[in-house]
Amino acid sequence: MTDVTETETLQPVRPGGESNGATRERNEREILEAAERVFARFGYRGASVQAIAEEAGLPKSNVLYYMGNKRGLYVRLLERMMARWNALLDDISVEDDPAEVLEAFIRSKMQLSRQHPEGSRLFAAEILGGAPFLQGYLRGELREWVRTRARIFEQWAERGLMDPVDPVWLIFLIWSATQHYADFEAQVLGIMGQDEISDADVERITRFLTQVILKGCGVRPSGGG
Amino acid sequence: MTDVTETETLQPVRPGGESNGATRERNEREILEAAERVFARFGYRGASVQAIAEEAGLPKSNVLYYMGNKRGLYVRLLERMMARWNALLDDISVEDDPAEVLEAFIRSKMQLSRQHPEGSRLFAAEILGGAPFLQGYLRGELREWVRTRARIFEQWAERGLMDPVDPVWLIFLIWSATQHYADFEAQVLGIMGQDEISDADVERITRFLTQVILKGCGVRPSGGG
DNA sequence: ATACATCCTGACCATTTGGTCAACAATCGT
DNA sequence: ACGATTGTTGACCAAATGGTCAGGATGTAT
């Protein structure tokens, strides 16, 4: 904080203009995004409020003014990520086409990892550390989410629309395979010798995963798509 | 450290007995294992030497006496994990049976995750944080490892022994699917409503993954095994 | 202009951080 | 028996940690 000699003399938050809670909104957004990056990189304990503040270009006191404390900030980020998560593949039914559902599942999960890589990594770091903040969510909401889908997969198998594979492990397989490209991005890039994963790469990977997983559990590809 | 009132008055390291570098060896092992757990749980920055020392049941000074500093300790753990890694599936050839090789790959990777879950998580945390210490390894050794295997997969495809899928993504798929059960153990347990993953679970998961992935990329299962 | 609420932040605090060091204890080689 | 090597650890340090707070700056409503 001693040397604030950033690019220019930081303006006094632009006096005129935005009214209402516009300032709050903007600053909170800024802080949340910075915090997501820092928590994702260093984990809960490894992230310092100071580092988050610097990432957001604000004094530490300001971050704490908006967020109360480190713990609250972290929980808020987790909840935001869970909300994105829950919006995913919210309603499927036995009547749906397995191929379409599985492909949509893979595709939307892949996009979530791509659109919110920091959030994905934040979540991963939380689980890696034993999910101290998410135990309840895992054993509650998420477990139900999985159960519901699993039941449908089983019914599909009974109807001969797919092989009788364990549906829970199938869900884990899809999660891991897609999550991988966010969480292990550094590894993927290192091995591919690139410095970013392009949209084209994502599309190819999505197709690859869809093809292998659908075929792997005996789902006939749908005509469309 | 102030209250060392552990179970009993800690013995003065058992005077008689071990000679040679036995003391060093034992203490180093103890420290490495403790450190692996702590680093895996909290990441590099989040882990404190103090926490590692407590986990090992030693004073902080003693940990630093053996390991020099935090950084060195961490690097040593990473190297140990890479060594285990490199021992995996070291030599395969185009002449081998794809089904056998792939199954052995899945199985041995699964076992590595199971036998060294803390090491797996340590590695995961390192990658998650952008692989600050492993950039070289990823872009060097590991990349070559992947290239070599990928070339063989391609030749199998050319010979019609499997579908012409992208071999690198196939390797990522196997990595992620197996690694998942170590890294996301907390999630897996939460959803399955268990408090540990049994040997039987591991066997079933291994079979599931083998079945789905082999079928998914058009590899005919081998007769044996 | 005045009152009121929101926003901003440097100074400060107790605690913890990684690391050093000196003094002491145990063991080994001879 | 004795010197040398190896092991042990509390005391200590500067820096960083999460968090508080007082006091000023800014904005809105009347």
From TrEMBL, chains A, B:
The keyword DNA-binding applies. The keyword DNA-binding applies. Residues 25-85 form the HTH tetR-type domain. It comes from the Bacteria. Residues 48-67 bind DNA. Keywords: DNA-binding. Residues 1-27 are annotated as: Disordered. Pfam families: TetR_C_3 (PF08362), TetR_N (PF00440). PANTHER family: HTH-TYPE TRANSCRIPTIONAL REGULATOR RUTR. This is TetR family transcriptional regulator. It comes from Billgrantia ethanolica. The lineage of its organism: Bacteria, Pseudomonadati, Pseudomonadota, Gammaproteobacteria, Oceanospirillales.
